[in-house]
Amino acid sequence: MPKQKELFYEQQHRIDLQSSQVNDKGEFEILAITAGDGNGWEFSADILKQSLSLWDNAQTFVDHHWFGHSVHDLAGVCFDPEWDETAQGIKLTLRPVGPAAPILSEIGRQMLAEDQPKPDLGFSADLIFTANGKEVKEVLRVFSVDLVVNPARGGEFIRELYQKFNLYSEGANMPKQIPTALEPIQDPLPGVSRVQQQITDDTQAVEQLLNVQGHIQTLNDEADKARAMRIKMGEQFLESALTAAKLPAPVAERLRVQFAGKLFEADELTLAIEDSRKMVSELTGGAVVQGPRVHSMFDTADKLQASVDDLLGAPRDEAAKAFKVAKLSGIRELYLMLTGDYDLHGGFDTERVQFATTVDFTGLVKNALNKIVINTWDQLGMAGYDWWNRVSRVEHFSSLQSITGTLVGTVGTLPTVAEGAEYTELVIGDSPETASFTKYGGYIPLTLELIDRDESRKLAAYPRELAAAGLRKISALVSAIFTASSGIGPTMADTGALFNATAVTTAGGHANLLTTALAAAQWDLVCAAVYNQPMLIKNATGITGTGPAMAINPRFCLVPRALQLAAMKILYPTLENAANIYSENMQRGQPGDVITVPEWTDANNFAAVCDPLIAPAIYIGERFGIMPEIFIAGDNLSPAVFMNDEHRLKVRHFLACWVNDFRPLHKSNVA
Length: 671
Description:
Structural class: alpha+beta
Largest sheet: 5 strands, antiparallel
Low-confidence stretches: 1-22, 158-187, 287-298, 582-591
Helix content: 25-40%
Mean pLDDT: 75
């Protein structure tokens, strides 16, 4: 059978807690928990012994409270935990303390009286532990040991050793031990009859009981006030939640009647709102375009999204291109129509809303802005801003764990195997390069002032700037591969700089760095150097750099703007106007392309890169897409709306950029 996985359990386990004696401070000695079955969970003696220190300073309250105890219910504190070998359990000393301490002491006295019948009262432990199946493996924490009704394992008071406890003066002398059913009653004081002594004792006991009952009534009054306060807070939370839910008025009123004036938990209201939203969606989702033939289905939200797209200049979805919708005058009209917030409080006024829909203002704007990002990304790419996409390979990752890009070596050539001879192991290895994701982003404020001034064009410009910023960030990351460390690039896993002139047969040697200026003959030397780069076999002494030639020419010539024309005349022979066209014969039949890198400022340096479809070297990792994401925080419960009167457009971009192989790359750092 497979081993069950250990899980965490946080439950209130009601275990026997037994009072055994009281000292001169009015402290109980109790048995907190014993080995055996507790609420279906099996506690062993060894597990309980290991948890002994966790029971020290455990508090005692009157009744369990699943959502946090109140100071009004504090009745005592437990300390000095010991292991009781006879009872096979944990023994504690319980000191009554707090507003509910009189209740704890008085209930103990009454439970130990001989009068019958008695209520089922005892103690319960609130703890957290791990378990394998139903077997407890470790007690992690003890929260409290509480006085409750109907304890799960019958915890009870055993006996009382003194007639009463002085709960209000810690230094007072405690009375002598009261007589039990098995002990003779002591003689009364001289000159006082036994009956008079008994009357005096009974009178004192009644006075103490009246004091305790008065204290209990005070606590009950405080509890009623707390309950009224919780109901008032619940009504405020109800109104805020219904406002944020943006449900149709009849549905919201139905929920208001259901929860108003009652105590309820947040999860109950959330579940009810979600059920109501689902019902509204099912009732309104059937709206279709009527006619002899139904070509598509859409609702009011779809048409409204089309209007917002038109307002901000975002391309419509394919299915929405045929919609005939009213044009919005500006972002202000959209905001007021959907929120009813004519006073610009940043809230939602159900009585002034002109357009009841399941979508909200921020959601519609976010959708339109993301479409603008995509459209701008494509347009800027066509203009050459995505040059990095031509020289690198983009890969998607399903987590933000650190990336290990592994280059597996080739076998090289197969050795000869003589007849009857043994096959030899082929030498093959790998070269792991590592990279980590970095999060980029920021936010742009969409203020209520901007909405009131109806600056729709300014809002539409934001996503275009975000798209350009995302493209330029990737451009800068790829560009830095060639310019880092004064032009020799990052250090590779083989300990060598990405670009160096050391022989490839030396550990860390890459032989992909030259210093001669760009010219037709020099470009041919660069191409030959890349073509002759040995394939990886294994980075080991005597084997490094001995693989067969990669046999791939560079596909791209990367240059700064100052070298753009010179490079074009070399790779595009028809642009050369010299009498003796050396480059035309050299480049004929060899495809190539010039890429201008906007971040390069050195007017002389250039680089060569192979086609990433054939020999990939540069990798870009993305987690949630290669384009930046746009989020909007703008409901009336958002801190920014309350504190700054602004909706926030946040942009987020997770990227990783690294070089997996030096062989398809070459750099010329011209002095």
